[in-house]
Each structure stands twice: as C-alpha cells, then as structure tokens.
Amino acid sequence: MKSTLTLTTLALAAALSACTSLAPDYQRPAGAVPARLPVPAETAVAAPASPMAWTEFVREPRLRQLVQQALEHNRDLRVAALNVQRAQAQLGVTRADRWPTVGAGLSGSRAPNSSGVQTTTLQAGLQVSAWEMDFFGRIASLTDAAQAQLLATEAGRRSAELSLVASVLAADRTLAADEALLALAERTVASRAESLKLTRLRDHHGAASQLELQSAQSLSSQAEATLIQARRQVAQDRNALALLLGAPVPTELLPAAATVVVPGADAAATPEVLAIVPAGLDSSVLLRRPDVQQAEQQLIAANANIGAARAAFFPRITLTASAGLASNQLSSLLEAGSFAWTIAPQALLTVFDYGRNRNNLEATRLSRDIAVAQYEKSVQSAFRDTADALAGLATWRDQLSAQQRQVDATRDIQRLTELRYSNGAASELERLDAQRSLFGAEQLLIQTALAEQQNRIALFKALGG
C-alpha cells in the first residue's frame, strides 16, 4: 500500500510538472519585405502548391543520375545528416531529464544507535536521487528549445541538400559550356593554322605584306592560348564536379557540349536540360525555403530558453526517494516485514547570486532579439535572391536570342569577307578581322547560354525548390 502511494505521488508530480511554461508566447515576426515578388508581367503565374522537386526541374536522365550520386556520396550532406541524428539524441537526453532516474542498489552502514551500541543496517532496493519536479517549466522549456533545435537542424540538412543539388547542376552546366568553348577553340586553332599557312605561302611569293603575316601569326597564337586555357578550365571543372559527387565522375555521366547552345548548330534542336521554374506573386512562398525555416526554428528555441531562464527565479523542487528492504542482518533481509521506504522532498530558492539569474535572463532575451534579426535577414536575403533571379528570368532569354542573331550576322559577314577576299576585293586584314569578330561572338553566345541556365538554377534555389 505504501509503495503504491509512493508511485502515485511520483506520477502525480510528473504530471503537474509538465503543465507550466514561463516562456513568452511565440509570434512569427513580420517578414520586412514587400508582400509581392517582382515577377515580370510576361512570366507571372499562379504560385505552385508546393516547392518544385529537383526531379521535376532536371529533365535530362543523365543529369538526374549525377545529382542522385551526389546526394548519396557528398560528405557535406553526410555531415548535415549526422548533425540531425545528434540533435535527436540531444533531444532524448533533455526529455529524459523530465523523468526520475531510478537505480537499484545494495548498501550497508555501521554506526552507534541512540544507546551508543554499534549496529549494522543493510538496505536493498530502488532509489530516486534528486529528481527535479518541474513545477515552473524549466526542463519543459529546455525540451521545447531542444525540439526546435532539432527542427532547425533538419531544415539545415534540407538547405544543404538544396544547395548541393544547385551546385551540381551549376557545375555540370559550367563543364558543358567549357566543353563547348574547348571545341570552338579547337576548330578555331585548326582554321587559323590553315590561314597562317596560306599567308606564309603568299608572303613567300611576295603577295602578302609583313603586317598581314604578323597579324595572321598573332591570331593563330591567340587561338592556341585560348585552347590551352580551355583545356585547363575543363580539367578544373571536372575536379570540382568530382568533389561535389564525392567520387570520380563516371565517363557516361559527363555532359556533352551539345546540351548548351553551340554556335553553328540549330538552337531549336538544343535539348532542354532544365525546366522553367514557375514563380508565384506572393512573397510568402519564401517562408518555405529551408534556410528561412531553419532561422525560424532557431528563433523558437531562443524564445523557449527565456522560459528556462525565468524559471530559475523560482524554487527548484527536488525529490529523493527509496523503497526496498532493510534489516540489521543479512540473513533476515528477505524476511517479511523488512520493507521500508523513504521520501525526502527539497525546495531550494536562490536568495543571492550576485545577479547571475538576472543577467542570464537578459542574455536569453538578447539571444532571442538576435534570432529575430537573423530571421528577418534570412527572409530579406531570400527576397533579394529571388528578385535577382526573377530579373533575369526573361532578360537572359532575350539576351541569348539577341546574341544568337549577332552570331548569325557576324558569320554572314565573315562568309562574305572570305568571298570578297578570294575575288581580290578585300584585304587580308579585313579577312582576319572578320575571323576575330566571329570567334568573339561565338564565345559570348556560349557564355550567355550558360548564364541563362545558371539563372534558372538560381531561381530554383531561391524559391526553395
């Protein structure tokens, strides 16, 4: 009966300790950004119900395999996942503090009794040592903070995953563009080497000036230098992609130059590797970004810590109890009538601590204010990233079209100049200048195509997927 009463008392104390919290009521701060995103009128669409999955954004099967390999083997993402598991364990530790720790023990003592006779006391049973009954919600607030930190860590993992996907896509597109630049440089080197050979032959027969010969030599050397630079850049791009994947890039997963706009090829035949990202009008879509959610959960944790700091001003009530068998002799320890129990509650109120609790409360309030500012900054940064990407949503495509027209016009100029040169109506310098202009325009076309695809990736990341 007494043991039942003791267990009932412990259970009732545990239930009462879970009912109080001194933490302030949490309210999400205002976003401090315009209510509407600056979406161009020609691209305005309804906001999607959920973030766009990367499998929907990436259309090419090869590139999907590349991203999947990175998600499985990238070390930074592995660390982020382990951080989540560690936060789960820390939450379990904090939750365990809300319940008594029960131990089993056997103890013995020998001391004089009231008559001065030395007596032996043996005890065996269960013990609860200094269990804090959380009447003022200190441990509950710490548990809420740990729960929010777990959610923040999980949001951080999703943010790391989103960043990894965007980085892999950007690295792949950069490698594809540099492969296209390398192929262009190889064709240009071969073409200018042939032109230099003809110019030398004409110079040998006195049909070309020294200036024409040196100009042809200069253009040929320039093309060779560009070729060497392109080869180095491609090698570095592959190394960067391998680091993101956490393993060497399989040959079959390397991008082809044809997946970007290739000068001279049919632009309409270029495969669409990345989808167009739909962007809604309401800036509230930014709240589903994982980094914004991470900042908000950290704010919730800081808010809960205020409750724990406030509880320190109230008495801390602890309970020590034991129940088991007691006897003066080991032989009679298990006999009937040897059951005994003790219960010793204690309330301790801090009277003077030289301002420790007061300063701790002020520190937690300031930490909450810092978390508010960090949350607002994360929302503002998300808005800026999205606004920048939206600004390029239509303009990069328009610029790419304009650049394609420039390449077509420059190619016609170069063809007509070659025709005039073969008929003696144009000089060697005019011919070389036309070649130089075409090479520069084709390089810029590839770079513009890369920038347009990078902008798609930036918008996908800015909207949280």
TrEMBL record:
The keyword Membrane applies. GO terms for cellular component: plasma membrane. Its main location: membrane. One of its GO terms (molecular function) is efflux transmembrane transporter activity. It comes from the Bacteria. The keyword Nucleus does not apply. It is found in: Cell membrane. It is a lipid-anchor. Keywords: Lipoprotein, Membrane, Palmitate, Signal, Transmembrane, Transmembrane beta strand. Residues 1-23 form the signal peptide. Belongs to the outer membrane factor (OMF) (TC 1.B.17) family. This is Multidrug efflux system outer membrane protein. It comes from Sphaerotilus hippei. The lineage of its organism: Bacteria, Pseudomonadati, Pseudomonadota, Betaproteobacteria, Burkholderiales.
